[in-house]
Amino acid sequence: MRPQATNLCPTCNKPLTLFRHPKVPSIPLDSCPHCLGVWVDEGELSEIHKALQPAPQQAPPPPPAEDPTATKDLPIVRGYHLSNVHHARDWLDQILRGLTFIVSAFRLLKENPQFILPILLNIALGFALLVLLGLGVWAMSGFAVGIELNRWLETGQVLLIAAAVIWYLATVTLGFFFKGAVVSMVDAYLKGRPVSLSIAFRDALKNADRLLALALFNILIGWLSSMLSNRRGTLWLGDIIRTITEVVTYLLLPIIIVEDTGLVAAVKRGIELYRRHLLPIAAGEVGVRLVSNILNFFAVTGVVFVVALLAPFGILPLAIGASISAIFAAIVWSVNAFITTAYHTCLYLWAVEYERAIAPEQVTVPAPLAAALV
Question: Which domains does the chain have, with CATH numbers?
Fold first, then answer.
């Protein structure tokens, strides 16, 4: 209403009473007690309209981003239900199963070449670290050459041993980190998740302390087995311990990566999984190890043969031939490491499926392993 000189109701001409409504206490209103009208001054109506508007609701917080490395409870989607899994009859059957799995692993590697990248990176970093340590030792000698370098090396054997120990510890630790990344990639592939090198490295980095503990455990057992192998009469015992340690290590690796658990808990979990499911252990372990060892033997033998063949022709041909042979041997070793890692990852996932399934026919066998069991 227009401002008036008198405070009277425009309808009944009775005096108006000032009051404040609880919903708009900041705006004074005029009310007529006689005709019950409520009057506002010019401009106050728009202010009341604004004040009565509902307060804008805050958007709900976005749901937490899904962790792409968390795959523990996901089912296997790249696998088969086998109605009947036959036990290995003899050593020949073991070897044939191992060969069949290796063929399946090669197909998997052909389909996803990035599976081998972590192991190739491991070899490259190990070589780079060796070169850096060698340059560091050479720099400590004052970049001596010839006879002076030989004399310095004779007096600096402690430094050389320390550099070799550092290189060994670093390469073993890095090896477990990169194999953990391979486990993550194989696990993601079998469960239908994107196979990503960056996600695999995040998964391995998340479990870096546990992988370090596993590496130190492996180094300690390896050192003890070497001591036994060097003692007369205990050579066989050291070899057995070394083999068992290698198998146990490969079995613990997927438990640590997939279940994000520590070393002690992984050991307990492994005992729990494999105590009642010994069938997966016999699915081709002997065959996989035998074929892998044969391939490694031929790779090393090839390098030695090329070096011996090219040695009489001078430094340049020898260096070129040795470099090519070393690259070939590194590729062979990488493929073998992938096969062994993928094999034990499939065994672990198979054992978990046995644990979850109500009936044997409901068990999903990972595809690369299923090919070796039919």
Answer: 1-51 (2.20.25), 79-370 (no CATH)
